[in-house]
Amino acid sequence: MIRLAARDLAVARGGLRAVEGLSFDLSAGQALVLRGPNGIGKTTVLRSLAGLQPAIAGTITAAPESLAYAGHADGLKSALSVSENLHFWADVFGGPGIDTALDRMNLRDLAARPAHALSAGQKRRLGLARLLVTGRSVWLLDEPTVSLDAASVALFAGVLRDHLAQGGAALIATHIDLGLPEAEILDLTPYRAGPVRRDARPAGFNEAFA
Ligand SMILES: Nc1ncnc2c1ncn2[C@@H]1O[C@H](COP(=O)(O)OP(=O)(O)OP(=O)(O)O)[C@@H](O)[C@H]1O
């Protein structure tokens, strides 16, 4: 079962085409690792798939409300505690309760601590725990392991593996080995856009408000 399909996708950032002609299928149970040198457009592809900015060309097919995006920013409410943050997102997404997320991302002992008083790695664990309360099947992950120590990387790899085993899917931009040997690689290098094109910015789109 295909959970996310892209066909002949072209994406742009800052008015410049980054990637074009990208097609792939992401199936239930599959993890795809986006690779390519800095600046090639991994973040831009993920943002476009997540609907945070429009694609320049091509089609994206996914079930409604199946996508969950975790970008560089953790999106935390700093004054709220760890559990309040998770409750907030569980309410927004209407997903499962927060207990599994607290336990799986090793946040139980930090549940009452305000997000602003977490370390960088703890904040990242909370940002990733958010995925578990969305109840969404396709995870779009941009450098999910930044700030994580080796134990937390392994913890998250386990969470990802279980998500895949339950029929989920993940597209992950990462420069490190996640310890998921079953993950396939999607290298963006062959899809680097050519010379600047005049249609790189959609009419009426202002990135400042994306
Ligand atoms: N906020 C921005 N405004 C304008 N251009 C940007 C912005 N962010 C990124 N770019 C440019 O868009 C292109 C694609 O960047 P993107 O962040 O998608 O690459 P990436 O493959 O994720 O890079 P990295 O591996 O460094 O995270 C790059 O040429 C970059 O310079």
From TrEMBL:
<dbReference type="GO" id="GO:0005524">
    <property type="term" value="F:ATP binding"/>
</dbReference>
<keyword id="KW-0813">Transport</keyword>
<keyword id="KW-0547">Nucleotide-binding</keyword>
<keyword id="KW-1278">Translocase</keyword>
<feature type="domain" description="ABC transporter">
    <location>
        <begin position="4"/>
        <end position="210"/>
    </location>
</feature>
<keyword id="KW-0201">Cytochrome c-type biogenesis</keyword>
<dbReference type="InterPro" id="IPR003593">
    <property type="entry name" value="AAA+_ATPase"/>
</dbReference>
<keyword id="KW-0067">ATP-binding</keyword>
<dbReference type="InterPro" id="IPR003439">
    <property type="entry name" value="ABC_transporter-like_ATP-bd"/>
</dbReference>
<dbReference type="InterPro" id="IPR027417">
    <property type="entry name" value="P-loop_NTPase"/>
</dbReference>
<keyword id="KW-0472">Membrane</keyword>
<protein>
    <submittedName>
        <fullName>Heme ABC exporter ATP-binding protein CcmA</fullName>
    </submittedName>
</protein>
<dbReference type="InterPro" id="IPR017871">
    <property type="entry name" value="ABC_transporter-like_CS"/>
</dbReference>
<dbReference type="InterPro" id="IPR005895">
    <property type="entry name" value="ABC_transptr_haem_export_CcmA"/>
</dbReference>
<dbReference type="Pfam" id="PF00005">
    <property type="entry name" value="ABC_tran"/>
</dbReference>
